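Table 4 source record.
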Amino acid sequence: MESVKIPMLSIIVTAYTTERINDIFELLDSIQAQTFKDLETIFIIERSNDLLNKINDYLQQKNITAVETVFCTEKLGLVGARNLGIKKVAGEIVAFIDDDVVLFADWAEEMVKAYSDDSIIGITGPGIPMWEDEKMKWLPEEFHWIVSSTAWWQGKREVRSAWGMNMSFRREAFNYCTFSTDFGQTTGGKEAWKAGPVDDAEFSINLRLKTKKLIMYMPQVKVYHKVYKYRLSPKFIRGQCFWQGYSKAVLKKKYRDDSDTKALVRERNLLQRILFKLVPRSLLLLFRKPKLAYKQLWLTFYVLFFVSLGYFTGSYPRFLGLAKKLGI
């Protein structure tokens, strides 16, 4: 009986500053601790010699193997760095993770296992929030997407697009399309919201349409995603919400032939959950925990206003000047 060949997994990580160096060390430790060993990591480092030296020293000190650091003197941005990493990989499966995640020990094993179905071209999984401060846990689950955490779904399901902090694709996917530099020029961090969540979505939609294959959410392919305090600042929330709304309008116009993008079913379902579950829940809290209730109700208004503004601006771009006046 012929044995089934297990594909190799390549991981691409991008970074540009030493600001998250301890997070990067923790990520590297979690990669080294994977139960699945046939993997490589390509670490794209943009413009920071200090960061390059710190990572290389740590790899040597901890005897962490199968990690290649690639230094670039140019400003690539997230998408440019990813596309550079794609050219370096050897694995049949190519994964992308953020530099502020921590992988579950069986993450790589579960990722590779998910590709046993030939109809699947891409996999994404949950990002479980790892709060910088426990006091941040007041954020309702319905708004975890603001802080790029995506652990609310139960069970595997087909999705419109993969999430950049925890996703992978068959290497053949890049024969069909690459990440567009039109949408991914920012480097990340506190200003990440300026790019909007378009680049991952555009790549995923293009890929599904061209290959007629599926991108699946697999709940067992888990990472922790660190949530820093600045992600709950009004400025960051405002930007995230605006660009979420804006990108949905842009993608809906661009991909009229994609029924999933056109219908925005998941967004409608989330809106119903916010209006008919979160809001009543928060109103009931007024009697027991009024401060928390007011905070959640104000956030709900704030989020819906700026998502709606973003969607309106994406639908009618001439109003983009209004958004700029609001500091977005």
